[in-house]
Amino acid sequence: MGTLYRHTPKTFSDHLMNKLMYGLYHTFNFITGYNHSDPSVKAIEWRLIILESIAGVPGFVAAGFRHFRSLRRLQRDHGWIATLLEEAENERMHLLLCLHTFNASFMTRVLVVTAQAVMTPVLMSIYLVHPKSMHRFVGYLEETACKTYLKVIQNCETPGTKLHTAWGSLPAPAIAIGYYRLPKDALWVDSLKCMMADECNHRDVNHTFADMKSDDPNPFIQEHRENAAFAWRLAVTGEPAWVSPPKPTVEDKKP
């Protein structure tokens, strides 16, 4: 929860992407009448589906460009493609987790298709001209995602809010328990915390890539190897990735 920050733009392209992303963010909030203090459940359901359906696009676009670039130049990619594809797959899983918890209306599906039709060629154009700008744009996009997830989690854990009433004790879907190796009694809010951690990682990865040259080696390769080894150990032992804190007993509540 204490890892939120806003990147300070330095270059002209940084400032441009910052204004573009946060301009879109605030415009989106204004048009939809988003209530930051106590949003409705439907508003958050709709928001998460739209957010994740868009967030899954940039990583795949960037990975595709770098894949064909590597083939065309007969050169190595230095490990970037794997990280970008992992990001795209992770965002797609976020979307599936949401859809196993609540349904998308017909209008939401229309908006998803429209947003994808608009954002994909825009992101492709940006990456074709200046790849660093797209990574910076995604970094700023993930900053807003982290902010959204934090607010949702806080509301889920605050008695009296609409989200606490609906999601405070809602069990995590089986797909989330399997994907994150959560305890069997995990709640939906535990899934949201894992998703927020993912978004924080995507934020840091894209801001890092935006500061690097295109032929610099990927600094996250060792982290991928360690995560893969950890996941293998969990699969072999059957242990959860983390254990829920014990629920307070009657004895604990006594002064």
Protein described:
By secondary structure, this protein is mainly α. 71% of the residues lie in helices and 0% in strands. The protein contains ten helices and no strands. The chain has helices at residues 12-32, 41-73, 80-99, 106-129, 131-156, 162-167, 174-180, 188-210, 221-237, 250-253. The longest helix is centred in the first third of the chain and has 33 residues, at 41-73. The chain is globular, with a radius of gyration of 19 Å.
* Biggest pleated-sheet summary: none
Please give the count of helices: 10
Give the beta-strand count. 0
What coarse outline follows from CA principal-axis ratios? globular
Strand content: under 5%
**Which residues form runs of ≥5 with pLDDT under 50?**
249-255
- Through-space gap between termini: 30 Å
Radius of gyration from the alpha-carbon trace, in angstroms: 19 Å
Helix content: over 70%
What structural class results from the helix and strand content?
A: mainly alpha
Q: Write the element-wise H/E pattern from the N-terminal end onward.
A: HHHHHHHHHH
Mean pLDDT reading: 90
Task: Reconstruct the topology from this structure.
Elements: H1 12-32, H2 41-73, H3 80-99, H4 106-129, H5 131-156, H6 162-167, H7 174-180, H8 188-210, H9 221-237, H10 250-253
Question: Which key features would you list for this structure?
Answer:
mainly alpha, globular, 255 residues, single chain
Give a brief outline of the structure.
The chain is mainly alpha-helical. The chain is built from ten helices and no strands.
